[in-house]
Amino acid sequence: MAVPAYDYLSACSTNSGTPCRCPTGTVYAESSVYAVIGAAAKEVTALTLDFFDTAWLGATPYATNGPDNTVGSTRSIANFPTTEGAYNVTEQLTKRQLLPNGAYIQRFELLKSTLPIEYSAKNGSLNGYWITYQTNSVFEYETSVISSVYSCATGHPIDFGAFQRFAWANLINTLTQQGKAPGQSIQPQSVQQWTAGPN
Question: What is the model's pTM?
Fold first, then answer.
């Protein structure tokens, strides 16, 4: 399903909302992943909210800048896997909100000074992405998670859902192995859509 491209949309940014307007000549894409983790929200938060500790993602920062879990701080990850190859990326934390029920909202983006990132196949480039993780305490041992990504790129857009599905499935496995997921889990499901704009 195509996302409509309207000239009056705000330029894509952390606070632009969606859909948004990518730079001229780039492709706008949206990806969302939903899952239910059979664990308490506090257990999900303990493993996933630390901005510098990304072991649950299957990646470890090779460099960090600024205090951990502070808006404006950055983390650099080597060989970050995508459907268009693996790349070194630097991400900046733009929002971190811990909710009273133990759930949270976290948002981050590619550091603007590192863009664009050219695809290794020389068939396009990544010109920015904005990612939000939002968890919700549904029941004592059921936590819903949503990761949403919007991005701007040239060439074929990256299917961010593929990596996000892996990350949340890995978290379910980790919590299950630790005996911290006695509830019912639903494996991650994703939706990806893109258009030739907005631009």
Answer: 0.90
